[in-house]
Design brief:
CATH class: Alpha Beta
Mean pLDDT: 93
Oligomer: single chain
Largest sheet: 7 strands, mixed
CATH architecture: Alpha-Beta Complex
Number of strands: 11
Number of domains: 1
Order of helices and strands: EEEHEHEHEHEEEEHHEH
Number of helices: 7
Low-confidence stretches: none
Shape: globular
Helix content: 25-40%
CATH superfamily: Spore Coat Polysaccharide Biosynthesis Protein SpsA, Chain A
């Protein structure tokens, strides 16, 4: 029976946050952003292991490291791109997973993933031939800008989805896709698509936003505080 493993690429700098501190270590409710991601995944009963891939010279991990138990492992083999970091992480995991095991690649800067949303993804894809990802159908009107930042055209949004993570594929397929990927695919699904496969879209939630700009931290804080109040009420 295939098992589920999580891989978190955490070697980026997060330059759009305007901070010298990599965004995965920015404070959120008094703890590093990545702490909230790892704490949730470490508690997920269906997840066999969680692998965090950081840069070889990452001093912040040691400073902020928390013991999440044996389920969480750290690999200091981050690459120059997201794709390279994920591929290096797959190599590091090689002796612990089987070819048909599921790998869930999740952003270090998405603290809003919930146990219910994770379970929804696992249930939807566990027996899928290809795998897939969480995503949200686009609701806003899309505008394409010209060089002067004026509207050049309005783009049809029919059939367009905003990709999220986790993105979930078999170990062997994901490794082959990233090994063959030309350029630098922006997510794992794009690399898998290049193999001629069609990943499945599983409806996600707005709460699973990626922290990209400073104001996103306030939204994430509100989400986690609401979760905490709900848990207290149960």
């Amino acid at each position: 029976m295939s098992t589920f493993h999580v891989l978190i690429p955490a070697a980026g700098s997060g330059s759009r946050m305007g901070s010298e501190l990599p965004k995965q270590y920015l404070p959120l409710l008094g703890k590093p952003l990545i702490h909230h991601v790892l704490a949730m995944l470490a508690q997920a009963p269906r997840i066999a292991s969680v692998h965090v891939v950081v840069s070889a010279d990452d001093a912040c991990w040691d400073e902020h490291a928390v013991d999440y138990g044996n389920k969480v492992q750290v690999h200091r083999s981050g690459g120059a791109t997201r794709a390279a970091t994920v591929l290096n992480g797959l190599y590091a995991m090689a002796g612990q997973v089987r070819a048909d095991d599921w790998i869930l690649v999740h952003d270090a800067a998405r603290p809003g993933l919930s146990q219910a949303l994770l379970a929804s993804l696992l249930d939807a894809l566990e027996h899928d031939e290809v795998g897939g990802l969480l995503a949200i159908p686009l609701a806003d009107t899309l505008k394409r800008a010209d060089e002067q930042q004026r509207v050049a055209t309005t783009e049809p949004r029919d059939g367009l989805w905003q990709a999220q993570t986790p993105q979930m594929f078999r170990y062997e397929i994901l490794q082959r896709a990233l090994q063959l990927a030309g350029g630098a695919p922006t997510d794992e699904a794009q690399a898998v698509e290049a193999l001629g496969l069609k990943p499945r879209l599983v409806v996600g939630q707005l709460r699973n936003l990626k922290i990209t700009y400073p104001q996103d931290l306030k939204i994430a804080e509100a989400i986690l505080l609401a979760d905490a109040k709900e848990n207290e009420a149960i």
